[in-house]
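Intended use. Records like the one below are meant for learning the mapping from a protein sequence to its folded structure. Do not use them to infer anything beyond what is encoded.
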Amino acid sequence: MEKDLGVIIAAAGQSSRFGQSHPKKPFLDLRGRPVWQMSAELFRARADVGPIVLVVSPDDREMVEEKFRANLLFCNVTLVEGGRERSDSVARGLESLGGDVRWVAVHDAARPCVMAEEIDQCVRAARDVGAAILATPVSSTVKQVNADRQVERTIDRRPLWLAQTPQVARIDWLGQALAASSAGSASRPAPTDEAEALERIGKPVAIVEGRPTNIKLTTATDLMLVKAILADRPRAGLDTLFD
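Structure written out for the chain above:
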C-alpha cells in the first residue's frame, strides 16, 4: 500500500488547565511511555502511514530531545517546533512532511484513548469526501447564559457535535486553509482546529461518529478517566512490551 498519509501529533500547547504540579499532558507517563507515544503508535501501525511528526513548543524541545530521544527513534517520529497558535504549529508540521504525502491526519497528543478502528473510519471518510473528523453528538441539554450566568435560552442540540481528533484532510486543502487563516484579518481569531480552517475556505468536512472515550486530557481529573479507560482495554501490540 502507498504510504501517502502523513501524521501530525500536536503537542505544542501550554497545558494551562492541567496544573503546574504535573508535567505537560503529552509528556506524562501512561503504561510505561509518554502520552504522545501512545497516539503515535496507533498511526505507525497503519500500512498507509509515511512520516509522523511531533510538534512541540520551542520551550519544550530540548527536554523532549533529551528525555524521549529513544522513544522518538523507536516510533520513527520527527520533532518539529510549533508556533504561537495551533494553526501555526500544524502549518509547520505540514512543511516537514515531504512531497510524497497527499493526505494528512492531525491528532491531539493528549488523546491517547482513540482506537485504531476510529482512525480507520475517519481516514476512509476523508478519502471519500476530501476531509473528515471524529466527533460525538451533543447529548446534554445546552443552555446559553448571560454575563451573570443566568439562562437566556435553550439551544437545539440536535445539529451540534463535539469535535475530536484525528482530523484528516487532503494536504493541499489543509495547506491552503492554513495559509488563508494566517493571511486573514487580525481581528478574526485563529481557527481552533483544522476543520474550522477548512470551513473558512468552503471545503466539505465529513463527520464520523467517534466514541465518548476518545477524551482529551485537559485537566488533572481527566487523567483518572484516561487511566480507567485504558485499564479496561486488553493489552495488545506494543502494549505487551511495557508490562
